Each structure stands twice: as structure tokens, then as C-alpha cells.
Amino acid sequence: xxxxxxxxxxxxxxxxxxxxxxxxxxxxxxxxxxxxxxxxxxxxxxxxxxxxxxxxxxxxxxxxxxxxxxxxxxxxxxxxxxxxxxxxxxxxxxxxxxxxxxxxxxxxxxxxxxxxxxxxxxxxxxxxxxxxxxxxxxxxxxxxxxxxxxxxxxxxxxxxxxxxxxxxxxxxxxxxxxxxxxxxxxxxxxxxxxxxxxxxxxxxxxxxxxxxxx
Length: 214
Prior knowledge:
Layout: E1 4-13, E2 21-30, E3 36-47, H1 56-61, H2 63-66, H3 72-75, E4 79-91, E5 94-102, H4 110-117, E6 122-137, E7 140-145, E8 151-157, H5 158-168, H6 179-192, H7 197-206
Antiparallel strand pairs: 1-2, 2-5, 3-4, 3-6, 6-7, 6-8
């Protein structure tokens, strides 16, 4: 029966991709000497927010997720970020493969809110692996499951995420609103003769004092 270990070697933006993807470089080792003919691999990637410190601007940006510092002991808990899958070709001993991590700039996703709040330092990630291993058996191929306890940690520089989003959305960020809100904003922009959405929102914000209810 094959025995596998996983190591995350590096995470970097996928070059030339149409959508924002990261590439996690994985090193896979089979420690018994058995030849692996193929590996259908799945990974759940979690963020472990309790494994780093936060400065005051980051705490303010994370209020919606974790509350203020007085609540961190209860609220800083690992949470799922994304799921990914790939297929590794046959190997003996060890191999390295790229695992595509599809990312989003949707701020309704907790992972996006968290990553956007970090200005510096590292992002503590936990990879939980599962999948199917195909090896040579006594009567053809044998099929075994990747054990559920296989995992790997990686501390991704926050700059990797920020560089990825800047490449796909330069100097821009995305907010999702209801259709009727967008229609009302579009009408406001039209009647005011404004040339951009930024101008419309900036003008509206200027009519309300910061910190006061509308």
C-alpha cells in the first residue's frame, strides 16, 4: 500500500491566466518505493487566522469577520478558503506538480475580506488532502484512497495575493450590490452627468459626514 507525504513548496500567481489564479507547487513523496501510476488529488485550503499577529489598521478591516481584539480568543478560528483538484501523472519516489487555486475578488466571500485586510506579513494556510491513488496490484491496478489525515501548512506572503489582484484589477476593487441599487445609482449618475461610477459614489459620500448615520 503506498504511503504519501505532501509539501507545499511555493505559491505564486499563475501567469497569463484570464482569471485570477494562484499556483501551489506541491511536492509529493511515496515512501515505500511503490510506483504510483496516477493520483487524482483534491485539496481543501483553509486559512488559520490565529497563527499571525494583526496591527490596528488590520484589526479595523477585520471587524466584520472577528470583532475587536477583545474577542480574538473566541473568533480567530480556521475557516475554509477554497477547494482545488488536479491529477498527477505516474511517478516513483517523488514528483512536483502545480495545483491551481482559483481566486475571487468577491467581498461576500470571507477569504477575500480576510486577504484584502492584510497589508504585510504572511497568510497561514492549511492544505487538507484527499483523493485516489492508482498503483500496480497483483491482478492489474489497485486503487486506494488518500488518507484524510494528510495535510501541509504554508505561510504565503500577503504580497502574493495583492500582486495577483493588482494584475487582474489594477487600482480597482469589486463590490456586489442588488440590481435595484445598481439601477438607482445608474440613474443618479445619469441625471448628474457624471462620467464614472467612482464619481457617483464619491459625490454621494460627500453628502454624508463620515461616522454619522444617514
